[in-house]
């Protein structure tokens, strides 16, 4: 048992690690797209600034050199966009290289346009801010060092810009105007793009948190399955003993001659048989019943047998079954699938034992999805219950261990590629919808399980 649990835990850790890497890769691609959008804005802004200063303000700039740098930046951004479309992973080192290209082009543009005397030199702060959000600590400090060296170098190494003759000190009007424009540009770009990048990172963190929660729930299911399997083994002997005793009582004259006692003994035998069926189902789901494959059947037969068995073993006032024109498709069934539906019906019965319960079966999404909907006349779900529907130990009944039935049902549906959703009906009562893809219930899958029974035992 311990070896099985350890193997399952190792598998879950590997699954979580792979899912975490996928989430990290997705965040990297999204951040690369944000960086590409920011770079296109930089290309457009630099082009507009160069042309405005050269032609409108009559401040002569080395257009050939500056436009060449701008063209190289545009080509690099186009190559980055093509890389993002390829679907390949984007590492943190790749993002660091992209930001370094931006710093290099900015340094070159400032070199040709006055160096430190150019008010747009504060755009280095924007590059550092972008790197702070996108990069890991080692890359961030490398970015700060490179940007600082570039800034300090431009205080001494640059091409002066010849300003036109003006009546006031030359730098006052141009420098103050450029400084204000640079400040506004930094502020707007920081707000817009930092918000987008932080949102991407938050989505990644939420995805990882969801994966961790799912791994914890699946580990919880594994432990419960091991405990249930052990309990089923232990219950086999006392159930067999009770069955023998009840059989003897049924043949004894004092009991056989009393119709009321005989009826009670028959009811006890029926419930005992149900207990033995449940125990057998637990062992079958755990892989103990070797050589038994999932049963091949048809959808109508499966649903009719499920409804008949549930009516016979539950003291329900009424269970209405509505199938409409549901086609009779081949499928397979096992204990977990039947137990999933039983758990939802049992929950509806507990919500209002004297009320009516309806089970509706239909096909959705062009016949690709089987929808089983359970409606009851109970008080419905509390808002906090709907928010945490399917979580373990979330129950409004106040019983120890409550909520495990729906928790297990949700995870059975998830393992089959489906889902379970709940809502409160406006006319009163609750509605729980189980949606399962028919492909996961096909006979072809049952045949595969029969050829590879070890995969079934490992579930």
Automatic annotation (TrEMBL):
Compartments (UniProt record): Cell membrane
Catalytic activity: ATP + protein L-histidine = ADP + protein N-phospho-L-histidine
GO molecular function, one term: ATP binding
Domain of life: Bacteria
SMART domains with a match to the protein in the record: HATPase_c
Positions of transmembrane segments: 38-57, 63-82, 94-111, 117-135, 140-158, 170-194
Pfam families: HATPase_c
UniProt key word Isomerase: no
Name of the protein: histidine kinase
Organism annotation: Roseateles subflavus
High-level lineage: Bacteria, Pseudomonadati, Pseudomonadota, Betaproteobacteria, Burkholderiales
């Amino acid at each position: 048992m311990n070896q099985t649990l350890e193997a399952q835990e190792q598998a879950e850790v590997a699954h979580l690690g792979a899912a975490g890497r996928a989430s990290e890769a997705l965040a990297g691609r999204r951040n690369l797209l944000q960086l590409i959008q920011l770079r296109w804005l930089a290309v457009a802004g630099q082009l507009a600034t160069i042309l405005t200063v050269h032609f409108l303000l009559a401040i002569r700039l080395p257009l050939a050199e500056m436009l060449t740098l701008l063209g190289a930046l545009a080509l690099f951004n186009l190559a980055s966009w093509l890389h993002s479309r390829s679907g390949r992973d984007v590492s943190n080192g790749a993002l660091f290289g992209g930001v370094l290209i931006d710093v290099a082009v900015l340094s070159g543009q400032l070199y040709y346009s006055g160096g430190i005397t150019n008010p747009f030199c504060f755009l280095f702060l924007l590059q550092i801010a972008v790197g702070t959000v996108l990069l890991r600590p080692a890359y961030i400090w490398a970015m700060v060092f490179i940007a600082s060296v570039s800034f300090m170098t431009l205080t001494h190494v640059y091409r002066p810009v010849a300003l036109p003759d003006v009546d006031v000190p030359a730098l006052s009007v141009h420098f103050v105007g450029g400084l204000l424009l640079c400040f506004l540009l930094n502020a707007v770009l920081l707000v817009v793009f930092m918000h987008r990048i932080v949102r991407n990172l938050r989505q990644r963190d939420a995805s990882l948190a969801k994966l961790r929660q799912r791994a914890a729930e699946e580990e919880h299911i594994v432990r419960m399955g091991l405990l249930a399997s052990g309990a089923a083994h232990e219950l086999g002997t006392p159930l067999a003993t009770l069955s023998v005793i009840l059989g003897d009582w049924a043949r004894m004259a004092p009991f056989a001659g009393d119709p009321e006692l005989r009826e009670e003994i028959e009811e006890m035998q029926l419930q005992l048989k149900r207990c033995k069926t449940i125990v057998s189902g637990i062992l079958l789901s755990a892989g103990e019943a070797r050589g038994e494959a999932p049963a091949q059947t048809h959808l109508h037969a499966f649903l009719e047998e499920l409804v008949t068995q549930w009516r016979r073993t539950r003291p329900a006032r009424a269970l209405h079954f509505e199938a409409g024109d549901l086609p009779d498709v081949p499928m397979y069934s096992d204990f977990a699938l039947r137990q999933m539906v039983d758990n939802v019906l049992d929950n509806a019965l507990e919500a209002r034992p004297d009320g009516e319960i309806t089970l509706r079966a239909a096909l959705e999404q062009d016949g690709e999805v089987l929808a089983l909907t359970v409606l009851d006349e109970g008080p419905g779900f509390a808002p906090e219950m709907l928010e945490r529907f399917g979580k373990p130990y979330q129950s409004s009944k106040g019983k120890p261990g409550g909520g495990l039935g729906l928790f297990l049902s949700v995870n059975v549906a998830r393992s089959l590629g489906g889902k379970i959703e709940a809502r409160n009906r406006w006319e009163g009562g609750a509605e729980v919808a189980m949606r399962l893809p028919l492909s996961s219930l096909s006979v072809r899958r049952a045949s595969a399980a029969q050829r590879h029974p070890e995969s079934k035992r490992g579930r």
